[in-house]
Amino acid sequence: VQLVESGGGSVRAGGSLTLYCAASRFFPCMGWFRQAPGNSREGVAVIDSDDGSTKYADSVKGRFTVSKDNAKNTLFLQMNALKPGDTAMYYCAVRLNSGCPLLAKDFPYWGQGTQVTVS
Length: 119
Prior knowledge:
Elements: E1 3-6, E2 9-11, E3 17-23, E4 29-35, E5 42-48, E6 53-56, E7 64-69, E8 74-79, E9 88-95, E10 109-110, E11 114-118
Parallel strand pairs: 2-11
Antiparallel strand pairs: 1-3, 3-8, 4-5, 4-9, 5-6, 7-8, 9-10, 9-11
């Protein structure tokens, strides 16, 4: 399993970024997680290809949008109205089992991460 994230960077508060995750194959459940220094890894957004459903952390609802291109095995995260509190390393993760929870412990495969810094 290979997951390669890209799109991170530095942006001012109120700005936007789009994150990308290229997977080596199709996974029905893909998600974004983040980890700031000193904090545990938290779920940001997941998308389930089985029914198209999505889940978001309360802190990003209305600002972030997760989407997926199944033909290209690519996951996206459109992040708008960014806040300094969004600063973290963002990770793409996938799972094969049924269901698509917003819980890091339920995802066995992870990318290396891409840094997002909001000032």
